[in-house]
Design goal:
single chain; mainly alpha; about 75% helix; 12 helices
Length: about 270
């Protein structure tokens, strides 16, 4: 029963925090820490991949018309706006793909409930969100150069505590891109990476080393998908209406509380 409750909670956390700019990876690490889950990242890999698959599916559902239009335009094999958008997505994927391939082992070691790291990265997320909310509104589209910078922000967001959506949307807005276009690009650019990572794990056989039961995986997937749908739609509205400061304050509070709790329970010794 405890494992089922944990799966449901992790699903809700993943669904909400994948889209809301508060760091899904950071919150999952905090959830594991405070629930006393001492499993290593590799041991919970199957659940992690399942939760990310659920949020990828919710993104596809929300942006199904956009994705279908982009695919149709791309496979016309002639220059058009949809093909250009696809190329920008590819450009944005390169930094994160490079980091994931070259520094895979180093990245995995970061996911060991390193609470000081998570708290510090949440603090950085809070600053980014605050700055983005104060940025001047424009109607600028995503260009190839800005796609690369947004991709670099996505690569940095591999660190637990840096919100992927928060980092990419904030970077885009600070580059002068229209807020709604920034949110759309941020959510669409991550889908190929998630699917690619899932394919790699399947080919490597890494998922066979994980232990969650089918019921736990199903409940986690379902909760992540449903909450992901709601959070994705909500986030687009929040970005458009410049309401990111509230999440900046939230990230700051969580960073301070989690870091303080860690210090009080570890003799003021930081990892």
């Amino acid at each position: 029963m405890e494992d089922i409750i944990r799966a449901i909670l992790l699903g809700i956390i993943q669904g909400l925090t994948e889209f809301l700019p508060v760091s899904s990876s950071g919150h999952l690490e905090l959830a594991k820490y405070f629930s006393g889950d001492d499993s290593l990242a590799q041991e919970s890999l199957l659940m992690t991949v399942t939760l990310h698959a659920a949020t990828a599916l919710s993104t596809i559902v929300v942006f199904r018309k956009d994705i279908w239009s982009i695919l149709k335009g791309t496979f016309q094999f002639r220059w058009n706006e949809d093909l250009a958008f696809t190329l920008k997505i590819i450009v944005s994927m390169l930094p994160a793909a490079l980091v994931g391939i070259v520094f895979e082992e180093q990245v995995e070691r970061l996911f060991a409930q390193n609470i000081p790291l998570v708290a510090g990265m949440l603090f950085i997320t809070a600053i980014l969100l605050f700055l983005a909310d104060k940025a001047r509104k424009t109607d600028k589209k995503v260009a190839y150069g800005s796609a690369l910078w947004i991709g670099i922000a996505q690569a940095i967001a591999i660190l637990p505590g840096i919100s992927r959506s928060g980092a990419t949307i904030s970077t885009a807005v600070l580059l002068g891109i229209d807020r709604e276009k920034a949110a759309r690009f941020s959510f669409l650019m991550v889908v190929p990476l998630i699917l690619g990572k899932m394919a790699k794990d399947l080919l490597d056989g890494n998922l066979s080393q994980s232990s969650p039961q089918l019921l736990e995986l199903g409940l986690g997937f379902g909760m992540a998908f449903l909450t992901g749908l709601l959070a994705c739609v909500w986030m687009i509205r929040l970005v458009k209406n410049s309401n990111l400061t509230y999440f900046s304050i939230y990230c700051l509070i969580i960073a301070v509380l989690s870091f303080t709790y860690y210090l009080l329970n570890n003799g003021w010794s930081v990892q």
